[in-house]
Write a structure and sequence with these properties.
single chain; 307 residues; Inosine-uridine Nucleoside N-ribohydrolase, Chain A; 8-stranded mixed beta sheet; two-stranded antiparallel sheet; binds beta-D-ribofuranose; binds calcium ion
């Protein structure tokens, strides 16, 4: 039976690939949208565009437009001012739902207790709001997989912070301290699972309409990777989605307690992992450290119609 996913996301070029993977292999109950990579207007518009591309009637719920406490910089310099590589795509015809994303998370999990896998691909603002309103939320979710953090302090925004956590550390703190058990796919794992541009571009050339769409929205980011001399594309949200869709592809994982640093002048937004079990707190995270690269790549190629 297909998994049913509830995806909280801030599309975002790598979010878009993760969504294509999800639609290829699972059912998607709803998309709840946060600000993050770019502003909420763009992330909602991009989610709607993506659903139209795959001809899905998935409800799209706009959520938080700002982090909970402090304003944060977006990642438009990577994803483009519109979050989809400034590819000049036409707007979607579909509209977002009236219901706020955080409320949709609460309602949908009440309607389908135990059925839904929650996938968090952006800042955790909507999840934190939902959890604050309804602390019983985790009991109704089959599985929570989060893309976020840098588990040994090698971040991608400040020195130790990864974007999704660093954008809204207070939200991450609420989720990490209130959700008893989740799976964490961090930035450092992403860096170990890059995909060569040559291979990725061969799928873009061989695939269907999804590949043509992805070719357009990822052009800017591929140029960005080339300029920085990165050996391959790092696709954080796609890696997290691989763990969702093919749990057996994980080859190494460790259970640890993870907390969020909120105050440090150099370390705000860091994921503090108790690797040595010093604080005596039960592990809240299953940290994914390695997965089967071939299986990861097979999911992507299929999602682009190139398998
Ligand atoms: C994460 O930050 C965003 O820019 C990406 O979409 C991904 O979710 C990687 O740090
Ligand atoms: Ca994202």
């Amino acid at each position: 039976m297909k998994q049913v996913l509830l995806i909280d996301t801030d599309p975002g070029v790598d979010d878009a690939l993760a969504l294509l993977m999800a639609y290829d292999r699972a059912d998607v109950a709803a998309l709840t949208i946060a600000a993050g990579n770019v502003g909420l207007g763009h992330t909602v518009a991009n989610a709607l565009r993506l659903t139209e591309l795959v001809a899905a009637a998935t409800p799209v719920h706009a959520g938080a437009a700002e982090p909970l406490v402090r304003p944060a910089d977006d990642a438009a310099f990577v994803h483009g001012a519109d979050g989809f590589g400034d590819a000049g795509l036409p707007s979607a015809q579909r509209q977002a739902e009236a219901e706020h994303g955080a409320l949709a998370l609460i309602r949908l999990t009440r309607e389908r207790p135990g059925e839904l896998t929650l996938v968090a691909l952006g800042p955790l603002t909507n999840l934190a709001l939902a959890l604050h309103l309804d602390p019983t939320l985790p009991q109704r979710v089959a599985r929570l997989v989060i893309m976020g953090g840098a588990v040994t302090g090698r971040g991608n925004t400040t020195v130790p912070a990864e974007f999704n956590i660093g954008f809204d550390p207070e939200a991450a703190h609420i989720v990490f301290s209130g959700w008893p058990q989740f799976e964490l796919v961090d930035w450092e794992a992403t860096m170990r699972h890059g995909i060569t541009l040559e291979r990725f571009e061969s799928w873009l050339a061989a695939g269907d309409a999804r590949a043509r769409f992805y070719d357009a929205i990822s052009r800017k980011i591929r140029g960005f990777m080339r300029e920085r001399g990165r050996p391959g594309l790092v696709l954080a949200d796609a890696l997290a989605m691989a763990v969702v869709l093919d749990p057996d592809c994980v080859t190494r994982a460790e259970h640890r307690h993870v907390a969020i640093e909120l105050d440090g002048s150099l370390t705000r937004g860091a994921t503090v992992v108790d690797w040595e079990g010093r604080n005596g707190k039960p592990a809240n995270a299953r940290i994914v450290l390695e997965l089967d690269q071939a299986r990861f790549e097979a999911l992507i190629a299929a999602a682009l119609g190139a398998a």
